[in-house]
UniProtKB/TrEMBL annotation:
Pfam families: AAA_lid_14, HTH_8, Response_reg, Sigma54_activat. This is Two-component system, NtrC family, response regulator HydG. SMART domains: AAA (SM00382), REC (SM00448). It comes from Trichlorobacter thiogenes. One of its GO terms (molecular function) is sequence-specific DNA binding. Residues 6-121 form the Response regulatory domain. InterPro entries: AAA+_ATPase, AAA_lid_NorR, CheY-like_superfamily, Homeodomain-like_sf, HTH_Fis, P-loop_NTPase, Sig_transdc_resp-reg_receiver, Sigma_54_int. Residues 146-375 form the Sigma-54 factor interaction domain. Transmembrane segments: none annotated. The modification 4-aspartylphosphate is found at residue 56.
């Protein structure tokens, strides 16, 4: 981050530009440029690498939202703050959805302006502290391998920084593919335990009969097959962090064992009598609604409260659509390198389709789609033809004609899931892999579509 912060102020009213330049520009840490229209602003940005843009919402010709959209497409790293004459909620909501960092009401309160600049600088500093060498992306939007510059993501980065310093148990919730694993890894990496083990366990994959021995270990001869003493995950993670992924999938018996260890802070190996102190920081994640599961008595309420000391919610991608170009380019770079391809970028129409899509599978779905497109790409840029079928539904050719109706998305999904379950003879692991979704997601879809294994 440079010591000088470059700010572009855009307003069709020259008086506002003058006030901003003289009052905010009086502080030597800010370098100010102004523009009286959207067009002029875009021209300025070609030579003036602004960190922050303040843009008036109501301007003739190109209005503030159009300018914001254009800036986010061309320079996703720029923070944009909208200025609005009246508190037109629908406009404000539209601007925030299009990636505005914040909005301020006019007439402009210079103290508020300074405060919003400071918040951005604080956010930038937080991200800066999480820079990772593996991230080649710009400094403003990569925090410990998590990509995102939407305000919701900055809030996540700040929460990670805060909780990393404590020992509190953290529950990360969010839909499938929203980056919960990355968040858990980031909390560990930012914590004082970072040089100790980070042990990650997928609870849904643990065999029911062996779960206690997996978690707590066992003594030699504890049961048939226990030929040596074995340390469990709690012991392996000593001094470090234990990440229990898909915690919503654990059985009632395991819930009791976990509750016990959280209450006592100690455990015993299976077949052992030694009491061992659990020196681990626990992080859990789930894509299920655990609060609802407790109401339905599927998950123990007492355990839920123990796990949910601090909760972090990974936002779905459709709620931070302004991050789509950033993520798409990040995945493009990643998969181009892996596949030794030189692809310079994503065509504008392909990017428009990506931005318009709702991403039920979130970042994982985006990563998969870009990977697929990269593999089949023969040109210098990634074009819309390389996107899969769901992106072609907007084209006239698939609009129902002559009373021939296409299935709805839910019908198609239902049919696909049913087919995958039948093909795998209801082997959930295989079906989830074939569908390229997490097992937890498959469970919830099975519930959603009321699917039942045939007797
Ligand atoms: N913000 C992000 N920046 C970069 N990559 C991301 C981001 N979020 C997710 N990904 C990528 O998307 C994929 C899925 O992420 P992750 O496994 O963390 O999701 P999850 O929330 O744990 O999903 P599930 O509930 O299905 O287990 C990974 O390849 C991850 O690297
Ligand atoms: Mg996961």
């Amino acid at each position: 981050m440079s010591a000088t912060t470059r700010i572009l102020f855009v307003d069709d009213e020259p008086a506002y530009c003058r006030i901003f330049r003289t009052r905010i520009g009086a502080d030597p840490q800010f370098q100010i440029e102004t523009a009286n229209s959207g067009d002029e602003a875009l021209t300025r940005l070609q030579t003036f690498p602004a960190d922050i843009v303040f843009a008036d919402m109501n301007m003739p010709l190109m209005d503030g939202i159009e300018l914001l959209t254009e800036i986010k497409n061309r320079y996703p790293q720029i923070f944009v703050i909208m200025l609005t004459g009246d508190d037109a909620t629908s406009q404000v909501v539209k601007a925030m959805k299009a990636g505005a960092y914040d909005y301020l009401l006019k007439p402009m309160d210079l103290e508020m302006v300074k405060r919003s600049i400071q918040t951005i600088l604080d956010h930038k500093a937080a991200v800066q502290s999480g820079r990772s060498e593996r991230c080649s992306q710009g400094e403003n939007f990569c925090f410990e391998n998590i990509i995102g510059q939407d305000r919701k993501m900055f809030e996540i980065y700040e929460q990670i920084n805060q909780v990393a310093q404590s020992m509190a148990t953290v529950l990360i919730t969010g839909e499938s593919g929203t980056g919960k694993e990355l968040i858990a890894a980031a909390i560990h990496a930012k914590s004082p335990r970072k040089n100790k083990p980070f042990i990650q366990i997928n609870c849904a994959a643990l065999a029911e009969g062996l779960i206690s021995s997996e978690l707590f270990g066992h003594e030699k001869g504890a049961f048939t097959g226990a030929i040596t003493r074995k340390k469990g995950f709690f012991e392996q993670a000593t001094g470090g962090t234990l990440f229990l992924d898909e915690i919503g999938d654990i059985s009632p018996t395991t819930q009791v064992s976990l509750l016990r260890i959280l209450e006592l802070g100690t455990f015993q190996r299976v077949g052992g009598s030694e009491t061992i102190k659990a020196d681990v920081r626990l992080i859990c994640a789930t894509n299920r609604d655990l609060a609802a599961a407790t109401r339905e008595k599927l998950f123990r309420e007492d355990l839920y409260y123990r796990l949910n000391v601090v909760s972090l919610q990974a936002p779905p991608l459709r709620d931070r659509k302004s991050d789509i170009p950033l993520l798409a380019n990040y995945f493009l770079e990643r998969f181009s390198t892996i596949n030794s391809k030189q692809i310079e970028g994503i065509s504008r129409d392909a990017m428009d389709l990506l931005c318009a899509y709702d991403w039920p599978g979130n970042c994982r779905e985006l990563a998969n789609i870009i990977e697929h497109a990269v593999v089949f790409c023969r040109e210098k840029s990634l074009t819309r033809e390389l996107l899969p079928a769901q992106f072609k539904t907007t084209e006239p050719s698939v609009v129902p004609v002559n009373n021939i109706t296409t299935p709805t998305l839910a019908e198609a999904e239902h049919a696909l899931i049913k087919k995958a379950l039948e093909a795998s003879n209801w082997n959930l692991k295989m079906a989830a892999e074939a569908l390229d979704i997490a097992r937890g997601t498959l469970y919830s879809k099975i519930e959603k579509y009321h699917l039942h294994k045939p007797d």
